[in-house]
Design goal:
Distance between the termini: 57 Å
Order of helices and strands: HEEEEEEEEEEE
Largest sheet: 5 strands, antiparallel
Structural class: mainly beta
Helix content: under 10%
Radius of gyration: 27 Å
């Protein structure tokens, strides 16, 4: 009987030693070390066309707006995210971090006491047919139309299975009509603001259940 018990104890110890994270009867412990790397053959760029070259800026020009207008002026422009190496697509399952940032949410003119501001809403809409936000309720990045709202919006987007050649991003600036009403103190002349849109690889998931690497 003693021999049987000793045999069972030895077998149990051997099984425990093979299970990572479990302390063996003599105090021994082991863990698994998984090492991996994902190689990309080029970086991501932002372009004006699906197969165009990298751009440094884009302009949303509302043109001339008459103060007191009863409509809400809006301007839209499409841009694209793609790899700088046009021979390969953005791999399916890749997670991209896309960020929209602005120093403030106003179109401003003048300075000091002569400064006048017009709130506007800036939206970057990521094409859902190419990539889906991890947080589905925030597929679009929106900087709301007043200075009290956030000036930074970011989200993670999973590239659709099979990969894509480019991801369309629709930029839109909208000014509410009531912010152009005749009772507002607004300078005559150009009102402007500079925001930034950035994109980078966040993670390439290879193991189910892995979390986003920030």
């Amino acid at each position: 009987m003693k021999k049987v018990l000793l045999g069972l104890l030895a077998l149990s110890a051997a099984l425990m030693a093979e299970s990572a994270g479990v302390t063996e009867v003599n105090g021994e412990n082991q863990i698994d070390i998984a090492t991996k790397a994902f190689i990309v053959d080029s970086g991501l760029i932002i372009t004006e066309t699906p197969d165009g070259g990298a751009i440094q800026s884009v302009e949303l020009d509302h043109g001339t707006i008459i103060k007191g207008t009863q409509t809400s002026p809006s301007i839209t422009k499409d841009i694209y995210i793609r790899k700088s190496n046009t021979t390969t697509s953005i791999p399916g399952g890749a997670i991209l971090n896309v960020t929209l940032k602005s120093p403030h949410n106003d179109l401003a003119s003048g300075d000091g006491m002569n400064r006048s501001k017009i709130p506007h809403t800036l939206t970057a809409s990521i094409d859902r047919s190419s990539a889906t936000a991890q947080n589905n309720s925030n597929q679009n990045l929106i900087l709301a139309g007043n200075a009290q709202d956030s000036t930074l919006k970011t989200n993670y987007y999973i590239v659709n299975d099979g990969g894509v050649n480019s991801i369309k991003v629709t930029l839109n600036s909208t000014i509410a009509a009531n912010d152009l009403s005749n009772d507002k103190v607004l300078n005559e002349g150009t009102h402007s603001n500079t925001s930034t849109l950035s994109v980078k690889y966040s993670k390439i998931p290879t193991i189910p259940g892995e979390t986003v690497k920030k």
